[in-house]
Write a structure and sequence with these properties.
Keywords: ANK repeat, Repeat. Pfam families: Ank_2 (PF12796). InterPro entries: Ank_Repeat/CDKN_Inhibitor, Ankyrin_rpt, Ankyrin_rpt-contain_sf. The chain has 166 residues and is an all-alpha fold. The chain folds into two domains: 63 residues, Serine Threonine Protein Phosphatase 5, Tetratricopeptide repeat; 100 residues, Ankyrin repeat-containing domain (Serine Threonine Protein Phosphatase 5, Tetratricopeptide repeat, Alpha Horseshoe). The chain is built from ten helices and no strands. The radius of gyration is 17 Å and the shape is elongated.
Protein backbone atom coordinates (compact mmCIF):
# COMPACT_ATOMS: atom_id res chain seq x y z
CA UNK A 1 0.00 0.00 0.00
CA UNK A 2 1.45 3.34 -1.05
CA UNK A 3 2.41 5.62 1.81
CA UNK A 4 2.04 2.85 4.41
CA UNK A 5 4.99 3.19 6.79
CA UNK A 6 6.47 0.88 9.41
CA UNK A 7 5.09 3.28 12.00
CA UNK A 8 1.60 2.81 10.55
CA UNK A 9 2.01 -0.97 10.67
CA UNK A 10 3.34 -0.89 14.23
CA UNK A 11 0.62 1.40 15.53
CA UNK A 12 -2.08 -0.70 13.84
CA UNK A 13 -0.73 -3.94 15.34
CA UNK A 14 -0.35 -2.26 18.75
CA UNK A 15 -3.91 -0.93 18.67
CA UNK A 16 -5.21 -4.41 17.81
CA UNK A 17 -3.17 -5.96 20.60
CA UNK A 18 -1.41 -8.31 18.18
CA UNK A 19 1.75 -9.14 20.13
CA UNK A 20 3.19 -11.44 17.44
CA UNK A 21 2.90 -8.79 14.77
CA UNK A 22 4.25 -6.07 17.09
CA UNK A 23 7.30 -8.20 17.91
CA UNK A 24 7.86 -9.06 14.23
CA UNK A 25 7.67 -5.41 13.14
CA UNK A 26 10.06 -4.40 15.91
CA UNK A 27 12.47 -7.21 15.00
CA UNK A 28 12.41 -5.94 11.42
CA UNK A 29 13.82 -2.63 12.63
CA UNK A 30 10.82 -0.41 13.25
CA UNK A 31 11.46 2.58 15.51
CA UNK A 32 9.08 2.30 18.48
CA UNK A 33 9.00 6.11 18.74
CA UNK A 34 8.24 6.90 15.11
CA UNK A 35 4.93 8.66 14.59
CA UNK A 36 2.31 7.28 12.25
CA UNK A 37 0.30 9.14 9.63
CA UNK A 38 -1.93 10.55 12.43
CA UNK A 39 1.06 11.82 14.47
CA UNK A 40 0.82 9.09 17.14
CA UNK A 41 3.37 6.55 18.35
CA UNK A 42 2.58 2.88 18.92
CA UNK A 43 2.54 3.25 22.71
CA UNK A 44 -0.03 6.05 22.44
CA UNK A 45 -2.50 3.88 20.54
CA UNK A 46 -1.73 0.44 21.97
CA UNK A 47 -4.47 -1.79 23.29
CA UNK A 48 -4.34 -0.74 26.94
CA UNK A 49 -5.69 -4.04 28.21
CA UNK A 50 -2.65 -5.90 26.90
CA UNK A 51 0.39 -5.29 29.12
CA UNK A 52 2.51 -7.52 26.86
CA UNK A 53 2.21 -4.90 24.11
CA UNK A 54 3.45 -2.22 26.52
CA UNK A 55 6.34 -4.45 27.58
CA UNK A 56 7.34 -5.17 23.97
CA UNK A 57 7.25 -1.49 22.99
CA UNK A 58 9.11 -0.38 26.11
CA UNK A 59 11.74 -3.08 25.54
CA UNK A 60 12.24 -1.49 22.12
CA UNK A 61 12.85 1.87 23.86
CA UNK A 62 9.41 3.38 23.32
CA UNK A 63 9.06 6.63 25.27
CA UNK A 64 6.48 6.00 28.02
CA UNK A 65 6.12 9.75 28.58
CA UNK A 66 5.24 10.85 25.05
CA UNK A 67 2.32 13.27 25.17
CA UNK A 68 -0.81 13.50 23.11
CA UNK A 69 -0.37 16.68 21.04
CA UNK A 70 -3.93 17.83 21.70
CA UNK A 71 -4.65 17.15 25.40
CA UNK A 72 -1.16 16.57 26.77
CA UNK A 73 -2.10 13.11 28.02
CA UNK A 74 0.46 10.36 28.43
CA UNK A 75 -0.32 6.66 28.14
CA UNK A 76 -0.19 6.54 31.97
CA UNK A 77 -3.09 9.01 31.99
CA UNK A 78 -4.99 6.79 29.54
CA UNK A 79 -4.34 3.55 31.45
CA UNK A 80 -5.28 5.22 34.75
CA UNK A 81 -8.49 6.72 33.37
CA UNK A 82 -9.55 3.40 31.85
CA UNK A 83 -8.57 1.26 34.84
CA UNK A 84 -5.84 -0.88 33.28
CA UNK A 85 -3.74 -1.50 36.38
CA UNK A 86 -1.57 -4.27 34.89
CA UNK A 87 -0.55 -2.08 31.97
CA UNK A 88 -0.04 0.91 34.27
CA UNK A 89 2.30 -1.15 36.45
CA UNK A 90 4.39 -2.09 33.40
CA UNK A 91 4.55 1.57 32.38
CA UNK A 92 5.56 2.79 35.84
CA UNK A 93 8.16 0.10 36.41
CA UNK A 94 9.63 0.88 32.97
CA UNK A 95 9.94 4.63 33.53
CA UNK A 96 6.57 6.31 33.02
CA UNK A 97 6.33 9.53 35.02
CA UNK A 98 3.03 9.56 36.87
CA UNK A 99 3.70 13.01 38.30
CA UNK A 100 3.25 14.69 34.93
CA UNK A 101 0.09 16.72 34.37
CA UNK A 102 -2.04 16.94 31.24
CA UNK A 103 -3.18 20.23 29.71
CA UNK A 104 -6.02 20.45 32.28
CA UNK A 105 -3.60 20.01 35.17
CA UNK A 106 -4.61 16.43 35.89
CA UNK A 107 -2.26 13.78 37.16
CA UNK A 108 -3.07 10.18 36.21
CA UNK A 109 -4.37 9.94 39.80
CA UNK A 110 -7.02 12.59 39.10
CA UNK A 111 -8.37 10.57 36.17
CA UNK A 112 -8.38 7.25 38.04
CA UNK A 113 -10.17 8.86 41.01
CA UNK A 114 -12.73 10.54 38.75
CA UNK A 115 -13.57 7.17 37.19
CA UNK A 116 -13.59 5.31 40.51
CA UNK A 117 -10.81 2.85 39.70
CA UNK A 118 -9.86 2.28 43.32
CA UNK A 119 -7.20 -0.37 42.62
CA UNK A 120 -5.48 2.07 40.28
CA UNK A 121 -5.87 4.90 42.81
CA UNK A 122 -4.31 2.77 45.54
CA UNK A 123 -1.35 1.95 43.28
CA UNK A 124 -0.87 5.53 42.11
CA UNK A 125 -0.91 7.03 45.60
CA UNK A 126 2.21 4.98 46.35
CA UNK A 127 4.03 6.63 43.43
CA UNK A 128 2.51 10.13 43.18
CA UNK A 129 4.47 12.91 44.85
CA UNK A 130 1.34 14.75 46.07
CA UNK A 131 -1.97 12.83 46.14
CA UNK A 132 -3.73 16.09 47.11
CA UNK A 133 -2.42 18.09 44.16
CA UNK A 134 -5.03 20.37 42.62
CA UNK A 135 -5.68 20.33 38.89
CA UNK A 136 -6.32 23.35 36.68
CA UNK A 137 -9.90 23.52 37.97
CA UNK A 138 -8.73 23.56 41.58
CA UNK A 139 -9.85 19.99 42.33
CA UNK A 140 -7.90 17.29 44.12
CA UNK A 141 -8.26 13.65 43.07
CA UNK A 142 -10.55 13.19 46.10
CA UNK A 143 -12.70 16.14 44.99
CA UNK A 144 -13.14 14.55 41.56
CA UNK A 145 -14.10 11.21 43.08
CA UNK A 146 -16.76 12.97 45.17
CA UNK A 147 -18.04 15.04 42.22
CA UNK A 148 -18.51 11.88 40.16
CA UNK A 149 -20.17 9.87 42.94
CA UNK A 150 -17.23 7.51 43.46
CA UNK A 151 -17.87 7.42 47.20
CA UNK A 152 -15.72 4.42 48.14
CA UNK A 153 -12.78 5.85 46.20
CA UNK A 154 -13.31 9.28 47.78
CA UNK A 155 -13.47 7.78 51.27
CA UNK A 156 -10.32 5.75 50.66
CA UNK A 157 -8.45 8.83 49.36
CA UNK A 158 -9.57 10.95 52.32
CA UNK A 159 -8.34 8.31 54.75
CA UNK A 160 -5.06 7.91 52.84
CA UNK A 161 -4.35 11.64 52.76
CA UNK A 162 -5.21 12.05 56.46
CA UNK A 163 -3.00 9.14 57.49
CA UNK A 164 -0.07 10.45 55.47
CA UNK A 165 -0.13 14.10 56.53
CA UNK A 166 3.05 15.26 58.17
Amino acid sequence: MAGHTQADELTTASARGDIREVEMILQNGADANERNTWNRTAIQVMKLGNPAIAEALLSANADPNVRDPVLGLTVAHDASRDGFLDTLKVLVFRGADINVIDNAGNLPLHLAAREGHQDVVEFLTQHTSDPSQRNGGGQTPCDLAKMHNRSSTAQWLEAYVLSNQK
